[in-house]
Amino acid sequence: MAAETSHENREIVAIRRADGESRTLAASLPRLVLDARRIAANVIHGLHGRRRAGAGESFWQYRRFVSGEPSQNVDWRRSARDDHLYVREQEWEAAHTIWLWPDRSPSMAFASKGARDSKLERGLIVTFALAELLVSGGERVGIPGLMTPTASRNVIDKMAQAMLHDDAVRASLPPSFVPSALAEIVVLSDFWSPMSEIRTMLAGLSASGAHGTLIQVVDPAEETFPYAGRIEFVEPEGFGVITAGRAESWAGDYVARVALHRDEIRSETNRLDWLFSTHTTSRSAAELLLFLHSGMMAAKGSARGSTVKAGRSA
Amino acid sequence: MMAGIPLSFAQPLLLLGLLSLPVLWWLLRVMPPRPRRIEFPPTRLLFDIRPREETPSRTPWWLTALRLAAAALVILAAAGPIWNPQTGVGGSNAPLVILLDDGWSAAASWDTRIRAADELIANADNDRRGVALVPLSEPARDITLMPAGTARVALRQISPKPHSIDRVDTLGALDRFLKATGDAEIAWLSDGVDTGRGAEFVENLAKTIGDRKLTLFEGGAAPAQALVAAENAAAKMTVKVLRTTGGVAAGVVRAIDAKGSPIGEARYAFGMQDRESEAAFDLPVELRNDISRLEISGERSAGAVQLLDKRWRRRAVGVVTGATSDTAQPLLASTFYLTRALSPFADVRLGDRGAPQQVIAQFLDQRLPMIVLADVGTLSPEIRERLNAWIDQGGVLIRFAGPRLAQADDDLVPVKLRRGGRTLGGSLTWEKPQHLASFAADAPFAGLAVPKDVTVNRQVLAEPDAVLATKTWASLEDGTPLVTGEHRGRGIVSLFHVGADSRWSDLPMSGSFVEMLRRLVDMSGYTTKPGAGVAAEATNVETVAPLRTLDGFGAFGPPPSAAKPMPADYRDRATAEHPPGFYGPADGPIAVNTLASADRIAPLDTSSLRAQRASYTNAEPRDLRGILLSSSLVLFLIDAVVVAMLGAGLAALWRRRTAAATVLLALILVAASIVPSPTRAQSNDEFAIKAVSQTRLAYVVTGNADVDSIVKAGMAGLTLFLAQRTALETGDPVGIDPTKDELAFFPLIYWPVVPGAPKPPQDAINRIAAYMKQGGTVLFDTRDAVEAPPGENGASQTPGMRTLREILSSLDVPELEPVPREHVLTKTFYLLRDFPGRFTSGQTWVETLPREDDDDAASRPARGGDGVSPIIITSNDLAGAWAHRPDGQPMLPLTPNEPRQREFAFRSGVNIVMYILTGNYKADLVHMPALLERLGQ
Lengths: 314, 937
Known about the structure:
The structure holds two protein chains of two kinds.
Chain A: H1 2-27, H2 30-42, E1 59-64, H3 76-79, E2 86-90, E3 97-102, H4 119-136, E4 140-143, E5 147-150, H5 155-164, E6 184-189, H6 195-206, E7 211-218, H7 220-224, E8 231-234, E9 241-244, H8 251-272, E10 275-280, H9 285-301
Parallel strand pairs in A: 3-4, 3-6, 6-7, 7-10
Antiparallel strand pairs in A: 1-2, 4-5, 8-9
Helix pairs in contact in A: 1-4, 1-5, 2-9, 4-9, 6-8
Chain B: E1 7-9, H1 21-30, E2 36-39, H2 43-47, H3 61-78, E3 81-83, E4 96-100, H4 110-126, E5 131-135, H5 148-157, H6 171-181, E6 185-189, E7 193-194, H7 198-209, E8 213-217, E9 225-232, E10 237-243, E11 249-257, E12 262-270, E13 276-281, H8 285-290, E14 291-296, E15 305-307, E16 315-321, H9 334-342, E17 346-350, H10 356-365, E18 370-374, H11 381-392, E19 396-400, H12 403-407, E20 427-439, E21 455-460, H13 468-471, E22 472-476, E23 481-488, E24 491-496, H14 511-523, H15 534-539, E25 543-544, E26 546-550, E27 556-557, E28 566-567, E29 581-583, E30 590-592, E31 602-603, E32 612-614, E33 622-623, H16 625-674, H17 677-692, E34 698-700, H18 705-725, E35 734-736, E36 748-752, H19 762-773, E37 777-781, H20 799-809, E38 816-818, E39 845-847, E40 871-874, H21 878-882, H22 901-918, H23 921-925, H24 928-935
Parallel strand pairs in B: 4-5, 4-6, 6-8, 8-32, 16-17, 16-18, 18-19, 19-24, 34-35, 34-36, 36-37, 37-40
Antiparallel strand pairs in B: 1-3, 3-33, 7-31, 9-10, 10-13, 11-12, 11-14, 14-15, 20-21, 20-22, 22-23, 23-24, 25-28, 26-27, 26-29, 29-30, 38-39
């Protein structure tokens, strides 16, 4: 119980810090917003209502049926009113819902010596900043299982409040839910869960056709394995203990194993046309935020097939 | 016994266990320590890594070394180490020759030497070997082989000799013995002190023993120390402490009187390299004269004892001069030469404060052993009788010639002096000054070097008669006597035919004069033979029998049978024939010491000797098992603690410790900043440095802001004026607080009296009194002359004056008077009639000068006391007149503003400062023309 309490405390501190830092981060990125707008104006599928007919969910106008069109486009209810055939057009919009998932499990609280932020803090900072940016761009942002999508201006406060009052078990991966096909999902986690769990999650989330981005937030120590001597490694979420007699000799194997793990995740995301990238807490949060935003735009604009490699991935 | 280290093992074979240490090393290295525990999120990935080979991490090397050391200690302890094991020479059947140093230098550690010799004999006994015991002090003794039991008895009978031994003399007997015996093994128990011919002995010993086995015992025993050259100097009794080794050491020399009761102790200390130190007894001369024995406390040897006889006593010598007590030229007076010549070895009592007759009577009452009459002429018959009786009882009377003696006629001279109507009062004048020719061989001055540079211009001449030659102690080139003397009763009368000053000869300026007087002082108090003339004493030198002698340990005992009487003038070091001790009569014995005052001891250099070295084991054998086992236990405990700490996370502990250290450091810093004393002391130093780096005028800060600012400006104005008009450039004036600040740095303190101000505390008053006693001057200024002009006799009753009276009431103030017209204060720089300040009506008071009633007082232009008046009182507000604003304008108006009043106020200040700084020199200066005229004669 004590461990949980301490983790909660750590989470509260992290949320408070992330609250403030994410605002400054978001405020310090006007250029980002401008870029986003510029990019949005140039692409067909924007995130905003286009005031034009196009692919969308809400009604835009009825127009006369043009011969040659597939007949299935005819809106028969409207056409029944008079002698013409009408086609119902939706407003061209991508008023997407963005689902953000910051991993708040105990393993995220890890911070090696010399790291500026813990993974949890970094994840929350980026989540909040991204939410702020997206909301200011007109999107609706939600956290699966915790907060319904909202376009409220004070989305950070809402998120923080929701997290603070959340008494559920902190899961590493987002719960299984069915997002709309146009929804965007961003998962910030360390993804140290077994591959099977990750695969299950991805299958569930992508079943409805939604797209998303996986960001693996890792500590520098988790990249480089800077340990030597006789060390007992403990999994923070209670999944076991292993003792390394000479930890320095494990480093090579470990790095290879991490690379393999990432390759597996990447192959899965590639298959689903999702994005996958890694972020080390020793690097700046703005870098990740920029990557996320631009990646999201680029993904909208370009063909879904390509893997966007923006920002630095380890 | 390991080489050089007194260590041996009961079961050395167990030491082979040390060979197992490398194995242990390997074993300890593979034993893993407790792992560190680290939370690591990707641990589940680690599960997938199967370690290729699980090599345990190594124990830190220092931990292994610690454990190995503990194991090695256990093994060592099991082998049964023994410190200081029994030493012994052995392994052959040849007879054992033991050479034993038995001089005084061996006495201090004699027991150690005997024990070492005992062990050697015991070992020889075990091996059934004969033993020859050779004490190196007895060259005459034949060397014989004896069984060990006999040798042991013989060893007990040997005791250290109280004198220095000459080892070389024994070599002949040793050589004979070795040639007769053939094979032999030699052990030399050396004391490591070279008392002369040490190198020769070492060289010849190597030749004598050839290739026989030699074991040399040295070191391990306390090195010998010795006392030499005791000297009863003018202020204290000093004695030199000698030693042969280095190292820092200290000790105590004790002084003991003839009855054996202690008189005093003096410490001495050796530096790292010192071979020689000095102990000084700072005692009154009467006590010092009672010292008959000095010894190094805790050093039992004859060399550590210095016996003192009458020669070391400081005698009081009365010096009477017939000259007037006019000390106008003290450096030319005869008493000056005599005092300087006598004071190194005698206490000089000068009788220049009264008539010679009175002084002589006084000296006789004090029963001084020696009186010097420098050119004392006629003596009253009564005094002559008393002097004669005193000489009969042993007094020594030394007379110096001079104009008065030449005129007088008395019998207190050894020879008859030639009288006559010569122009120079019976003295003769040569055209060519005469040199000193010789000292009579049988007289007290025998053996002194004849100085070549002494010339005699005038002297009194003796009537030539038959006994003149025998009475002559020193003569000039033409044969006339320079010093004559004779024994009268138990005393001596001697006459220097020249004066004790430099007018007749330059003998008093020569070193020989000091030596001659020393011989004479030596004679005072122990001239023994009643009625014996100098000549009689000289022809057959008196021999004195030994009274009490020292044994080798420095203890008094009856003289040994070998001790022989010695000449009374024996001054050399002790020998076997003349062992150290007291010789002669019990009431005035003569001391003979183990070492002469010029002797020094050196370490014996045996490095050229091819020998096995051994050391005296002055400690019991010690079992080291306990120490080793307990230290190994301690090491294991440390190991346990270290392991526990490594397991608990050294890093966390370290962090906590640094935090604690930071807190501690902060506390120390805070404490250091709270403690104020160093800064306070520093500010005091700064004040002192500021005050003495330049002459500064000082003023008392009253606490009244108006007054203080005026006074400060005034003192600054005076300083400026002084710099403009005189050669005196003083520093910025200093405001002081007499309760706190040191006053002694300032020649003048200006004290403005504020009416109604509280009286300073008694402590401050005492400081002011001390300041005035030490020569400082305080200028009190009541600054209120205008309010109440002085009444009768200059006395005034203004509030300021009343406050001043209160201040002065508890101060030791001399009698005061208004500054007289001829006071030097009126003439020190400017010629002034009075001392105006802002007011002119006030009176200035100084210390009353002693009235001179003689006639020329009126004609003298200035009068000055011997010192400067410690106090000056005025009410004219001098500082108010001196004060200027920064723009140069006067600060205060003057009353009644006479023309040039301010100028005269400044002049008053200049005169006061000059008076204080130059004192009565200025008073003398007004006599300059007269002085020049007198010097020109």
